[in-house]
């Protein structure tokens, strides 16, 4: 039985190593962003605002359960700002991985983009003024590179 386990293990390693190579064939750009750490002033304002909100909540209700619930809601709502987000631009589309969600969309589903100082908002709703989309933080990635790749697929 030990020999069979070794054979299975040796067969699995090459296939698992070849799978990521296929997934990365059409990869154009890949980076990770954590806005909370990268912008200390905004991060401090965000942290202080959350603490003030939680303190106010405790003062109003005098129950710690509401504070715990609020911490959970704030964490879920701002997870893409607090925790690292991984962005991947491929020839097929855009992939965004965060702590609580992973989304992937084809380039044909995006209807427009809006440039901002710290990132780009990719619109996938109906019309250019839609509020549905993905916000990609530039982080340490050069904005020109990201916009050049996106510009090839979204006009």
What would you say this structure looks like, in words?
50% of the residues lie in helices and 24% in strands. With 155 residues, the chain is an alpha+beta fold. It has a domain at 38-79. Strands 1-2-3-4 form a four-stranded antiparallel sheet, with helices on one face. A three-stranded antiparallel sheet has the order 5-6-7, with no helix packed on it. It starts with a helix and ends with a helix.
Based on secondary structure, the structural category is: alpha+beta
**How do the helices and strands follow one another from N- to C-terminus?**
HEHHHHEEEEEEH
The coarse silhouette is elongated
Please report which band the strand proportion falls in: under 5%, 5-15%, 15-25%, 25-35%, 35-45% or over 45%. Answer: 15-25%
Profile the largest sheet.
4 strands, antiparallel
Mean pLDDT: 82
Q: Can you tell me the residue ranges where pLDDT is under 50 for at least 5 consecutive residues? A: 1-24
Helix fraction, binned, reads 40-55%
Describe the strand arrangement of the main beta sheet, using strand numbers.
Answer: 1-2-3-4
Rounded to the nearest angstrom, the distance between the terminal CA atoms is 59 Å
Total DSSP E strands: 7
* Overall radius of gyration: 21 Å
> Total number of helical segments?
6
């Amino acid at each position: 039985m030990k020999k069979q386990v070794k054979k299975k293990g040796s067969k699995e390693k090459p296939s698992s190593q070849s799978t990521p190579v296929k997934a990365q064939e059409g990869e154009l750009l890949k980076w990770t962003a954590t806005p909370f750490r990268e912008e200390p002033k905004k991060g401090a304002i965000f942290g202080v605002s959350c603490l003030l909100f939680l303190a106010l909540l405790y003062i109003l209700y005098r129950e710690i359960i509401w504070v715990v619930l609020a911490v959970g809601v704030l964490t879920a709502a701002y997870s893409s700002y607090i925790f690292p987000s991984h962005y991947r631009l491929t020839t097929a589309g855009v992939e965004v991985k965060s702590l609580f969600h992973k989304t992937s969309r084809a380039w044909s589903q995006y209807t427009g983009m809006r440039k901002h100082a710290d990132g780009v908002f990719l619109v996938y709703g109906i019309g250019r003024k839609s509020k549905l989309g993905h916000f990609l933080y530039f982080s340490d990635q050069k904005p020109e590179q990201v916009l050049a790749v996106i510009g090839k697929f979204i006009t």
